[in-house]
Write a structure and sequence with these properties.
It contains 10 helices and 13 strands. It has a single domain, classed as Sulfite Oxidase, Chain A, domain 2 (Alpha-Beta Complex), CATH 3.90.420. By secondary structure, the chain is α+β, with helices and mostly antiparallel strands. Strands 1, 4, 5, 8, 9, 10, 12 and 13 form an 8-stranded mixed sheet that branches. A 5-stranded mixed sheet has the order 3-2-11-6-7. It is globular and about 45 Å long. Bound molecules: ligand MTE. Ligand MTE binds next to loops.
């Protein structure tokens, strides 16, 4: 296995080759103005909490929060992966301000007795908690983010999953008029992610509706996104529109793009390298030269290791 230089991993190295080639097509089109002009996107970058963004007033603190210092707001909202808006880290902050987040519904359906569609207003009125979690990206960088949200298991219990519900599939938004990235098949849109039902029901798994006490900005997955802190960041789908309880393991967008590189489980694991780089260490944004050891399950092992007892985590990566 090829171990890459420890300092940083270039986008060309991270992205599977076929995806990288399509990304170049996208960039050419964007540079020619074809896509951006069609969508009317402009460059309003986020750098500080937004006075106009909805504030959550009664947010409980959580025993699950890390005591580590949160990454600065400008980095949490300025260094993102949201390929529907482009493949550069700065693209989501530049373009996701146009994401239409109202009206918004999340339908919860499939193997359950009481399928339901939840309006976003109803979701943000739930009792909310702040969960300060580490986010560890498969690209070997990490952040600490104060999310505002609620446990996914609360929502799933309301629809009464049947015994056939073995997995949960998350389908995220496709808005061709605001997301210039979906005009190019960088991934097989919509971006789909999945969890095993016990992972989805775990108390650490949350649906987030905010960061830093206020509504999520577009680039972080407005108006509602998944956060699964012991898995690589790509498992945490943004701007969710559908949650399906299913019997079979879902095929996720990244598995379709490159199954040898991005497995279904994708638990943070320093002992299992990505085929093209090591996962032993990570760079805490915005640090550049110092690296810290990556901890198995992103440090949440006490709570989640039991979910994988007896499993070969090299095989089920
Ligand atoms: N969700 C959607 N719909 N599209 C994406 O491209 N990128 C994923 C994940 N969720 C992505 C997504 C990846 S690779 C990461 S690392 C995290 O979002 C990043 O979340 P953040 O930008 O809020 O830090």
């Amino acid at each position: 296995m090829l171990i890459k230089r420890p300092l940083d991993v270039l986008p060309s190295e991270i992205t599977p080759q076929p995806v990288y080639n399509r990304r170049r097509e996208f960039m050419k089109a964007a540079a020619a103005g074809a896509i951006l002009a069609a969508t009317g996107c402009s460059d309003d970058t986020e750098s500080a909490p937004d006075a106009t963004r909805e504030k959550f007033t009664s947010v409980a603190t959580s025993r699950f929060s890390t005591v580590e210092k949160p990454t600065e707001y400008k980095h949490v909202t300025g260094y993102n992966n949201y390929y529907e808006f482009g493949t550069e880290k700065s693209d989501p902050a530049l373009y996701a301000g146009h994401l239409k987040t109202r009206p918004w519904t999340v339908s919860v359906e499939g193997e359950c007795l009481k399928p339901r569609t939840f309006g976003i207003e109803e979701l943000i009125k739930r009792p909310l908690e702040e969960r300060v979690y580490r986010l560890r990206c498969v690209e070997a960088w990490s952040m600490v983010i104060p999310w505002v949200g609620f446990e996914l298991n609360a929502l799933l219990k309301e629809v009464e999953p049947t015994g056939n519900a073995k997995f949960v599939e998350f389908v995220t938004a496709v808005q061709p008029d605001t997301m210039q990235g979906v005009h190019v098949p960088v991934l097989d849109w919509p971006y789909v992610e999945g969890l095993r039902i016990d992972e989805a029901m775990h108390p650490l798994t949350i649906l987030a509706v905010g960061i830093f006490g206020e509504a999520l900005p577009g680039q972080n997955g407005a108006p509602v996104r998944l956060v699964v802190p012991w898995k690589y960041g790509f498992k945490s789908g943004k701007s969710i529109v559908k949650i399906r309880l299913v019997a079979q393991q879902p095929r996720t967008a990244w598995e379709k793009a490159s199954p040898t590189e991005y497995g279904f489980y994708s638990n943070v694991n320093p002992n299992v390298d990505h085929p093209r780089w090591s996962q032993e260490t990570e760079r805490r944004i915005p640090e550049f030269f110092s690296r810290r050891p990556t901890v198995i399950f992103n440090g949440y092992g006490d709570q989640v290791a039991g979910l994988y007892a007896g499993m070969d985590l090299k095989k089920y990566f």
